[in-house]
Amino acid sequence: MKTELFFDNLTDIKQKIYNFSSQFDTCCICDSNEMPSAYQIEKYELLAGYGLNKPIHSHNRECWKDIEQSQQWIFGQFNYQSPFNESLTHFLFEPKIVFLIAKNTNKIQLINNGISEIEFNELINKFRETDIVTEKVKAISLQFEALTQKEDYLRTVTQIKEDIYNGKYYEMNYCIGFKSKSIGTPLLPLFIKLNQESKAPFAAYLNTKQFAILCNSPERFIYKDNDNLYSQPIKGTNKKHTENNQHQMLLLQNDEKERAENVMIVDLVRNDLSKICETGTVRVEELFGTYSFKSLNHLISTIKGKLKEGNNIQSIFEALFPMGSMTGAPKKEVMKHIEKYENTPRNIYSGCLGYIDPSKNFDFNVVIRSLEFQKTEQTFLYQVGSAITYDSIPEKEYEECLLKATNIQTLFK
Questions:
Q1: Is residue 299 included in any domain, yes or no?
Q2: Domain with 404 in it: what CATH number?
Q3: Of these residues, 235, 306, 331, 404, which one is catalytic?
Q4: Inside any domain, residue 121
Q5: Residue 135 falls in the annotated catalytic set
Q6: What average pLDDT does the structure give for the chain?
């Protein structure tokens, strides 16, 4: 059961959708911000799920069983970790109602996701009554504490380079975190402000009773469209210039270190996809695609494969998760050293967030450039990282981490 509503102004209808979320303890909004994704692989301008109709089990076996048996839309996230863990840390749920805006349309679909017709109509009426105006974020002054001091960061990068020289692995994505206490900060207006500042194609707002994620990710982890799988790792970053950015993009595309980082992860993703895709179908659709976002330029490669018969969402995640762009190569060995060197647990950061539709197609981003808010502790946390190779210069890697955090830092000045 669904209802269609037409709109004249996309910005206004999105604002109405955001504001509607304040009526729910649980909601998830995925917004592409009218930004074309890399290689023009896109379907929806916005997807949103409201209300907790049914949670997905946390135990690994029951989680995948719930997903496969569901005939509804599912929204939520997986924490960074191995999908083979007995207890798979995640927050996934079937919402009560789903809002869908397809790309390049002027209508919104309101979809009943397994509730009664009476409740569905009540929610539609509440949405119609929702105001477009939202609360503005007042100046927030938070002092974020670095959980890894610069000197420790530089020392660790030097150690990682020594590991690479000794042949333990080829590349590691090394991450650091920043934390601050905050009481009474309005989360939804803060996300809206962050989203306006960043305009990322895989932005998302997930709010639960325990935590919230304010995500402005530019990176897609994995997209399934029938039998086709697409992964689009980002490796390679520089600052966008307001003038002559074409020169910046050219510098990025021709940077030997950035290209080396990118191709290592492309090879890793190709290997992961080959475990679950038909022989000969895994190929690189675009290598070193150079894309410009609001404040940064990125190198993005697109790898595609045709899913082999007999595979499902569980086998896809077991083959690909966690994503190579946030671990390194070879993946298993690097993950052991990530646990050794990083003093801030990743948890939500560098996991993935997105949706699964009733046909078992799905789209998940990489949770980066994000604020995590834990409601019990009343704390904000953000994390950043960069890929370390033997050619890395520790000071420059630290500067890249701070560059990636710019949009978040400016929210609190």
A1: yes
A2: 3.60.120.10
A3: 235
A4: no
A5: no
A6: 94
| 219 is an active site residue | yes
Q: Contact 199/33 with Cβ under 8 angstroms?
A: yes
- DSSP run (H or E) holding 16: helix 10-20
Residues 59, 146: Cα–Cα separation, whole Å: 34
Nearest C-alpha neighbor of 347 from the set 374, 318, 320, 329: 374
pLDDT at position 83? 67
- Cβ(349)–Cβ(384) below 8 Å: no
Cα separation values, 402 from 198, 209, 253, 257, 410, Å: 15, 30, 21, 19, 12
Three-state DSSP state, 37:
coil
How far apart CA 397 and CA 400 sit, in angstroms, is 5
Catalytic residue among 42, 45, 219, 318: 219
Number of domains in the chain: 1
Cβ-based neighbour number of residue 53 at 10 Å: 18
Decide if 164 is inside a domain.
Answer: yes
**Is 219 among the domain residues?**
no
CA distance linking residue 375 with residue 208, whole number of Å? 9
Provide the residue range defining the domain that includes 233: 146-177+224-349+376-412
Report pLDDT digits (tens) over 258-312.
Answer: 999 999 999 999 999 999 999 999 999 999 999 999 899 999 999 999 999 999 9
pLDDT for residue 173: 97
The C-alpha atoms of residue 322 and residue 350 are separated, in whole angstroms, by 8
pTM of the shown model: 0.96
Q: List the structure tokens of 99.
A: 């809002």
